[in-house]
Amino acid sequence: MNFDAIHTPYPSRRMTVYGSGGMVCTSQSLAAQAGLDILKKGGNAVDAAIATAACKTVLEPTSNGIGGDAFALVWVEGKLHGLNASGPAPAGLSIEAVKGRGHETMPALGWLPVTVPGAPAAWAELSRRFGKLPFADLFEPAIRYAENGYPVAPDLADGWARTFRRYSEVLQGDEFSEWFRVFAPEGRAPRPGEVWRSPDHARTLTAIAESLARAFYEGELADRIDEASRKTGGLIRKEDLAAYKPEWVDPIGVNYRGYDVWEIPPNGQGLVALMALNILKGFELGERDSVSTVHRLIEATKLAFSDGLAYITDPSRMNVRVEDLLSDAYAEDRRRLIGREAVVPAPGHPPRSGTIYLATADGQGGMVSFIQSNYAGFGSGIVIPGTGIALQNRGADFSLDPGKANSLEPGKKTYHTIIPGFITKDGEPVGPFGVMGGYMQPQGHVQVVSSMIDFGLSPQAALDAPRWQWISGRKVMLEHAFPEPVAKSLARMGHEVQWALDHGSFGRGQIILRGENGVLAGGTEPRADGVVAAW
Fold it and tell me: Residues 61-73: what's their mean pLDDT?
């Protein structure tokens, strides 16, 4: 991408930031600065990503935590590497166990949707393979913020307050009391500018740092998780934690107009973004904000999503090959379904043969696309007493229908929403990108990739641009800044257009691109408290 030719047609409170020594982009300014400090101390992009991610568990607990999952795409030594650190269902979690407790669908809160956390293992594995600084050094900023506290940022405070109000209504039972003690110590959510601290987080992060995460999976922290689970009705056990290992995987990608776009393979939903781009590359798009362009982007994404929701699950249980879903022949079949009218998508038949995102880059060519999440906000509502560990509710995506691809099984990984992205060209890195936010994520990937590659927008302009979100059927939600004439034309084409009341559901992204001269260009999400830290 030629930075000189990139333009910024959308009003923004931010401009693209440039640097050459290193860069960290994320949705929390203190975390980005912590990652940059690691780079200045001689760390590489992997070290900065770990330090930033650890900080985020303290500085943005509304979206991620120590008890969540993580994925990473790492460019180092001339190659792109993928890490899948999502955890499986505990051995004791089954369809029969869930239905035996009176549920016909997977609950979103409590112990039942808790799966084995992968984030601490991701930090340790990334450091072991590619890190430069001592692992324990990377946790010093996060431990300091947890111990001493930090002033809560405005967007963070807003999300915290909304969750507190909801949890106050729906969380009933002793297993949830620790959440209120840790995250609402004053009987309410912290207000903007108010200092929140958590010594429990500090002690847990110290134990993880000193043991290379073994304390979480085999030691004292694993014992505490097991004890809390047994006491209050959970099914996860220390044996589930001890058996867990993250997986190095080969990234999957498609070539989109001369650029290779990469994602983590299933069980992640990055495949959805790639299928949509594979469909779109057969069209000559007009203006970015023209109704024909927006219609095609929406329809391609709908078709890709219908396939993703039908087929994506634990890769060992998928009955369709990824390469078949990404074949040009299958993309052409799906492309023929896009006409002038909005359709209700259905999965095709290919031939058989609460998340945080951060991006880092160092001055030596290393780049990391990293994402971690507790899934829905704080996760399950379960916090392990005395540790600050908020456990994820990733298992809520499992189906209790044994005929579905993503049906619940003990030890199985569920369909996963969090996805890091990466772009290369002619075998060289262009940079990491990501848009967090549940099922908005592949839709955000499609929109920012198209904005940059098809229409020459800068990283910041691509993130600033108003977004659409496909909900289901013909229903599409638009941000308030979306052009009204285009919205009216979409409605005439059969789209059921709804205007969003706020920007909370449209994802939050970060982008770093490296130019041919080595200069880094970074953009951060205007819908969050984000910052680009560079030097």
Answer: 96
